[in-house]
Amino acid sequence: MENLNNFLKGLPGVTFTTPASPNYDSAKATYITNKQLLPLAVVRPQTAQDVATIISYSTANGIQFAIRSGGNNLFGHSSAHNVCNYIQ
Q1: What is the model's pTM?
Q2: Sign of dihedral through CA atoms 74, 23, 57, 14?
Q3: Could you point out which of 30, 43, 44, 75 has its C-alpha 20 to 30 Å from the C-alpha of 18?
Q4: 84-87 vs 41-44, strand pairing mode
Q5: Domains (ranges, CATH) in the chain?
């Protein structure tokens, strides 16, 4: 997790929230309330290049991820347990 934090800190303009962050609960919230999911981080890239860089890093380091656009999905697929959520 420390490596992920350091990587994300090195991306200007990208904000992220981890379980240690005070706003983690609100950042991971979805409209699907029957699932209690605990993502590794909620990341908010600002550009398409940010998205590509973060996905490349994640796949190279074996970090599973879920893409969340708008934050809700009828079946709860916009988030997952123990993955990174990327929101744009």
Answers
A1: 0.72
A2: positive
A3: 75
A4: parallel
A5: 2-87 (3.30.43.10)
